[in-house]
Amino acid sequence: MNTHITSTANISSAAVVQAHSPIAKGFISIDLHHDNSVADQALFECYEDLLLSGTATKTRAEFLHAVNTLGGNISVSVRAGVLTIEVASLATVWTKMLILVQEMLTEPACTQSELQRVKTLVINELHDAKEDAKTIAHHNLVTSLYPASDRRCVASIADLQASVSRIKRAEVLKLHQRLQQRRWTVSVVGSAAACTQFSTTVLRLTATNAVKLEQQPQVGTETKRAQPLLLEHIPSRQNIELSIGCALPLKPGDADYPAVVFAIAVLAKMGGFAGRLMSIVREKEGLTYGIYGQLTGYNQTTNGYLRIMTFFSPDQVEQGITSTCREIKKLCATGITAKEFQSFTNILETSRVLQNDSPMTKVAVVHQFNLLGFSVEDIEAYHESFKILTRARVNKAIATYLAPMKLIVSAAGPVQPITKQLQAVVKSM
Amino acid sequence: MSKSTKRGASAFKLVCTYSEFKLYQHKHNGLTLLHYPKPGTGVITSNITYRVGSIDERRGESGLAHMLEHMLFKPTRQDIERKITAGAGMQFERETGATLNANTAYDRTTYYFSYPKHHLSTVLEIEANRMQDVVLDDKQFLPERGNVLSEFDMYNSDPYFALEVAMRTVTFQSHAYDHEVIGFREDIEDYTTAKLQRFYDMYYQPNNATLMLIGDLTATEAVASTELYFGQKENRVNCIHRESAREPAIAGPRQVTIKRPGTTNLLALGFMHAAFPSVSWHSASLTLDVLAGSPESVLHQALVDTGLVSSLDHAVFGSAQPNMGMLFARLAVNVTHAQVEQAIQTALKAADIHTIKRLLKKEQTKLLTSKTFARSSSLGVAAELTEYVAADALQAYSTFADDVKAVTAKDIQQNIKQLFNPDTLTTGYYISV
Q1: Residue A395: what are its φ and ψ, rounded to 5°?
Q2: Which of A37, A114, A208, A366 is least enclosed, having the fewest CB within 10 Å?
Q3: How does pLDDT run across A74-114, given as a tens digit for each residue?
Q4: Residue B8, pLDDT above cutoff 70
Q5: Is A230 helix (H, G, I), strand (E, B) or coil?
Q6: For residues A177 and A219, which has the higher predicted lDDT (pLDDT)?
Q7: What is the pLDDT confidence band of residue A223, given thresholds at 50, 70 and 90?
Q8: Closest residue on chain A to B300 (Cα)
């Protein structure tokens, strides 16, 4: 698989070419963030479905029929203000799929009846989200770290539901205009012909774009001083979901980023069993099924935050938090071992090799780099930066960035009966 | 040189050649080897599937197959000799970053690794050792049971899971599909290492396993490497115990209700479907896709688009014997279970042959496309083949497309009547109080 990335004022375009591939998949991402108002967030919630709800020449039923007849898939999501459209199909129908994507993006109908249907649907989905303890714990952590205007913050479910109910068609169409005012980031995997077809379609779609720099998303670097313990009582859950973290002044491309990412992997590598927290809190102490962490929430210009995610049963949550924090303190006090340094050097290299097993994984990874503004050379340099790391460099980064951390514990679940115990354990951290 | 290497590659006989893969069987111990080449990636996925699952569990021992799956990551006799305290599998993952995991289902337990190809020997040695030599003692078992209880609580918090568990208990009178794979909490709390050892000794042996090697290796490499590490393995029991129970005919509708604090209200319909991977199974699966598989589907339009429910979910299980499939509807605020039940039956009656025909064709095309995507990675191939191995029906992997295309609109229409006959349904209410 060969990877290319080209960049212009209007667009950054990546292609992962796989000779004779019978399948093709493309990503189109457009940053629609404005002010992260509740109204904007509510619009994003509805926009995901409205884009798939018909065009100037096709009703929703006709549009869905056209997509499904081809056996393809188009999905739309908006996360932290970034719209992402994923389109996938067999190579044999790829051209027809791209015509539908073009139609969807140039002529969305957004009829009153469809808007009403989508509003009902979204309000129902938001109601369901009231018991999603894992997501609520995460949102509460993020909202405690950043001001409300920050793209990562999510409004309350009640506020979003109220705002969704007030959305007007004109507001949706105005939001849609932002597509022509923002830079597009696109990535594709498939045969050379499929990649070319995708690029041609995107170029056609962006030909008349007028990227207005003054309307580019504003970056919020401000952070708040948050309470150390955030609790949300959700009595229907049996476990207590936790997001433990803090803001970290880093993003990819920063000199110390690889060292800090390496250290966080040693502590709580995402997936698998290799992280210290999985080895100790899960394997040795049997306190949770899974405990992982990562530096996340960054983009090309915005620093990220540390998030450790896990869950404990109510009767073990004090011990679980204590053990987790003990291991974090231990890492900060003594750094990583020589053996860990060697192992995680191998681990990071292996994860790169394994991407070659799946063209879908490969293009998803390339798209993430593309969103960060990386060229192919930048991606190579990024991987090389891990190869030239030293244990001393990682431990210095731990001392610089992780040791001074003031962790915030965000818990969601049946917390009410054990609030005092949780306050006590967090106070003792 | 060991006895196994003297035997050489000829210890495996070629059993069958399919278009995508070859199947071998060991002449002495009966181990099945599946080789599926995907050259040029530098990656291999190995998957060993044992024909043992929750169907093989006794009363009071529900979830034992799954608990044992967890224990197979613990140290073996060989690991202890080499002072590998974490267990070789875990240590391998922690030193190399290879993907490893396992899962248990109704009829099988599966372990897999995905790794750069030069690790093949290491992985096969790990799999061979843990086939029979894991040391099941309390030091390793007790913390792991804590993890399994944590996993149980994670699932049990989910209203969908809780409702399905309750529905299984009232649906099956005799058959061992009457409980969820993870088992009941009370049974998990009562496990002992003796129970685990008995289970391990009965089901973990070469003639009850299929090893799949998928990825960047040749058939010669696959056969020779497997012989090297598995050639000396012996079967511990001559006759593996199999639970077999024919489920009595359904005599009437069944209903179960769960009440818990919260905001979620669910209606679930349980229906009996055919065993995987028969054409009848594909027919049932496509029926649910036509009814609830996409925004175009019959029930999505009748329930979600009208605001009666917020979402629909469905499951037709890839089990080796007939099983209970599920249709879930998550109720919108102020909508009653009875309203949704009525709306479902009305929509099912209104589904005419033209609508079904139109939807079926699309669902068939989507399904065939999704399989092409799944088969683009060795992990995806392994995941799909696992279910065919468990059902002892590998030939159906190659006839998948034909089997899917064989389903007609009339079949779907007939299924709708049969599967959702109110007299044979199990109905579940999850009520938030």
Answers
A1: -70, -30
A2: A208
A3: 999 999 999 999 999 999 999 999 999 999 999 899 999 99
A4: no
A5: strand
A6: A177
A7: low
A8: A121
**Can you tell me the distance from the alpha carbon of B421 to that of B30, in angstroms, rounded to the nearest whole number?**
44
Would you call B296 and A68 a contact, using CB atoms and an 8 Å cutoff? yes
Measured between CA atoms, the residue of chain B closest to residue A73 is B366
Chain B CB contacts of A21 under 8 Å are 376
Chain B residues in contact with A348 (beta carbon < 8 A):
97
CB A275 within 8 A of CB A267: yes
Closest chain A residue to the Cα of B115, Cα to Cα: A354
Nearest by CB to A346, from B96, B368, B373: name it. B96
Under a CB-based contact definition with an 8 Å cutoff, are residues B394 and B388 in contact?
Answer: yes
Task: Give the percent of chain B with pLDDT over 90.
Answer: 92
Q: How far apart are CA B269 and CA B52, in angstroms?
A: 28
For the record, the structure tokens of A387 come out as 């190869």
- Checking if the pLDDT of A215 tops 60, the result is no
3-class secondary structure, A295: strand
Residue A17 φ/ψ, nearest 5 degrees: -95, 125
Q: How many angstroms separate the CA of residue A159 from the nearest CA in chain B? A: 17
Kindly tell me if the per-residue pLDDT of B207 is higher than 70.
yes
The model's confidence at residue A135, banded by pLDDT at 50, 70 and 90, is very high
Q: With cut-offs at 50, 70 and 90, classify the pLDDT of residue B6.
A: very low
CA of B237, closest CA in chain A: separation in Å? Answer: 32
| pLDDT of amino acid A227 | 85
Q: How many CA atoms lie within 13 A of B164 on its CB side?
A: 25
- The length of chain A is 429
Distance CA(B30)–CA(B16), nearest Å, equals: 15
Residue A315 touches partner B, C-beta closer than 8 Å: no
Selected for mutation to probe chain B from A89, A131, A281, A357 (highest B CB count within 10 Å) is A357
Measured from the Cβ of residue A132, the count of other Cβ atoms closer than 10 Å reads 16
Check whether B71 has a pLDDT greater than 80. Answer: yes
Long-range contacts of B16-20 (CB under 8 A, 24+ apart): B16/B394, B16/B395, B18/B394, B18/B395, B18/B397, B18/B398, B19/B398, B20/B397, B20/B398
CA distance B175 to B316: 17
Cβ of B369 within 8 Å of Cβ of A72? The answer is yes
Q: What share of chain A is helix, strand, coil (3-state, %, to 5)?
A: 50, 20, 30
DSSP summary character for residue B134? B
pLDDT (average), residues B377-388: 97
CB pairs under 8 A between A and B: 181
CB contact under 8 A, B264 and A236: yes
Q: What mean pLDDT comes out for the span A217-225?
A: 55
How sure is the predictor about A218, in pLDDT bands with cuts at 50, 70 and 90? very low
Interface confidence (ipTM) of the complex: 0.89
pLDDT of residue A212: 64
Q: What is the pLDDT of residue A213?
A: 54
CB distance B88 to B79 below 8 Å = yes
Q: Which residues, other chains included, contact B209 with Cβ-Cβ below 8 Å and sequence gap of 6+?
A: B31, B32, B48, B49, B50, B51, B131
Residues of A in contact with B363 (CB under 8 A): 68
Record: contact A127-B42, CB cut-off 8 A: no
Which residue is closest to A133 within chain B, CA to CA? B157
pLDDT digits (tens, 9 = 90+) for B350-376: 999 999 999 999 999 999 999 999 999
CA atoms of B292 and B420, how far apart (whole Å)? 13
Which of A403, A404, A229, A227 has its CA nearest to residue A331?
A403
pLDDT band at B234 (very low <50, low <70, confident <90, very high): very high
- Residue B354 forms beta bridges with which residues? none
Taking the Cβ of residue A346 and every Cβ of chain B, the question of whether any pair is shorter than 8 Å is answered with: yes
